[in-house]
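#data-curation
PF: Archiving a pair of folding outputs for the training set. Convention for this channel: one message per protein, sequence first, structure tokens after, nothing in between. First:
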Amino acid sequence: MTRLVGLTEGEKKNMRTRTLLTSAATLALVAMPASAALTLELTPLAGSPLTVVDGSGLDGETNPGVVSYSGALGAIDISVTVGVSNSPGGTSADLTITSLLIENTSSLDAGVTIRLSDTGFNSPAGTTLGSTAGGTFSGLNATSSVNFTSYADASNALFGLGTATAPLAYSFTTPPSQSFSGSVDTGFAGSLYSLTSVTVVGLSANGQVNFSGLTSVVPEPATLGAVAALSVAGLRRRR
């Protein structure tokens, strides 16, 4: 067992959270069902959207139910982005964005909006929509930010915005490095539905963020914390 020596209580908490979520990421990538609708969309602050559909030529991941992209979007360098869906669901319905490493390679502020969506979820017929997020800011200028919102749509529309959680919003205030994490939930009812997550990232000049987020529908509010710990992916990957 790793001993957390010389760390503050907040740093210990973030490290334990990352350990749990990294283990969950390995489980999430195993034996995912095929998901023809799973779609990742990346839109830079100034520029056109880049759309990556599961199994398409832009998808860097061969496993079904997983979509991946690495590349540059203007001043934004996206090293690894992985979206995972377990549609049609199970004990929980999960849509996860993980291993997201974004860097602003310019001397000016830059940003990107990342949307991930999948349809065809029918298990569970949920009563709770949960949103869990975390990561680490890096850089010398404390102007970076991340905003993560989860959606469930009872009309089963791709990128449907029927029911939304409150946004999880984080700002970089203590350079050169700052970790963050949190969760929120809201009521939702649907027997066939889509899930969508929207991540809005703003980065200062030469700023960087590592990020993961989970959108999840569960049958009971009390189970949300356990589902998040077992389902969302690892939060931090250093170069």
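PF: Second:
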Amino acid sequence: MPHSSPPAPASPQPVSSAAASTSPASPTSVWQLQALHLRRGQTQVFSDLVLHLEEPRIGLIGSNGAGKTSLLRMLAGLEQPQQGQLLWQGQARTQPSRSVGLMFQNPEDQIIYPTVQEELQLSWRSAHPGSSRAQAVQAVQQFLQQRGLPDWAERAVGGLSQGQRQWLCWLAQLIGQPQVLLLDEPYASLDLAGQLRLAADIAACPQQVLLSTHVLDYVRDYPRVLWLEQGRIRADGPGEEVCAAYESAVRSAFATQEEAAPHG
């Protein structure tokens, strides 16, 4: 039976000296969402959404269908608002860029190649245009060695568990070294050990991280958390405060439903 999380190395290893040179606290990424309207079919996802995002760690919480994934997809350039303007670093975002990486909620939507080696080579070469296949092979092997996963290189994606596939998606983001990491439910398929390892990795990342999750404990200490509800920002502030308010509202709504439900 495969485990859902990889073995942890003795100590966290940096992806590269270049990635490690940027402090997570430095204001390297600034997003401006100016009166955005996003409609998908008959569904109005966002109406007049206004946000300024520059914190190094930003959490997104809310119920299913609240707009968390849609917001991340807009930031990644995969969906375009019908009205308004989306700016990153003062420039309009109209298409995907390797500077902004999105880790999909479903690994099957992200993984392309049949082996771990090939999948990671794709990400590494996107960050190193003009590199050779031999260079990519060596870089991936060194990366996996640093991560304590030297035997993963030739593993077939089809033989990985769901948690391991999600971990592969995370490794692809790390080795690709984008300036911004957009993580859509990254903890969803991981066991507890995998969640703890991922949280430690994220804490050590030099990049700006925007993360959607239902596992509130991993964003409580974030400087900023957005609570989305039906495409609107219901609360925006320090993680501890926003998570507590969200939990209280959900528990209250559940209690009200229970009281109103018929009991045999």
